[in-house]
What does this fold into?
Amino acid sequence: DVKVTQSSRYLVKRTGEKVFLECVQDMDHENMFWYRQDPGLGLRLIYFSYDVKMKEKGDIPEGYSVSREKKERFSLILESASTNQTSMYLCASRPTGNSGANVLTFGAGSRLTVL
Amino acid sequence: AQRVTQPEKLLSVFKGAPVELKCNYSYSGSPELFWYVQYSRQRLQLLLRHISRESIKGFTADLNKGETSFHLKKPFAQEEDSAMYYCALLGGNEKLTFGTGTRLTIIP
It folds into this structure.
């Protein structure tokens, strides 16, 4: 009954590497989100997308980019990973519509360590 | 700008005692507010939302627009309530803003 799938649970990368975090949802949701979760800082929105090929910057987009070529898939890209991007990354989705739809479904998370 | 403040990073409560997790918000319009919970080794999930006005797992939360608060309450804490709790606000720009979270520990 898994609805939001993040392809990698744990990744270890080196500084300067290009990193792809993949997220797929099977609920036909229009909206998809990438957050990072850090102790003491809570969840901070990196990017979100409300439609295919559309993207909007969140609160901390610097150092990240995203891709949404298909409705079900939303990828987070770190062009050149740095140690301060070591974090837990959470993908989420929700449909567009009435207020009953304003609930996020989260993936299990991808823990990225940059050495 | 919208902001959510959870003043307590850590909260420890004895089993059977009342629980209150505080949440204050800043938003110029009419917000929609949520509590999300993350149990150990589980995904972040919705606990409750203010428009539903329901009680989930014994928890309730009332939106107080005068005090701009949405505190989460439970009259009698249970061990299984130990988790990380996040308050979140949905503004008119479709952006969901989370607080920094409160880790609740129930002491047996």
Observations:
- Chain B touches chain A through 21 residues (CB under 8 Å).
- Chain B has a mean pLDDT of 93.
- The longest strand of chain B covers residues 83-90.
- Residues 54 and 60 of chain B are 7 Å apart (CA to CA).
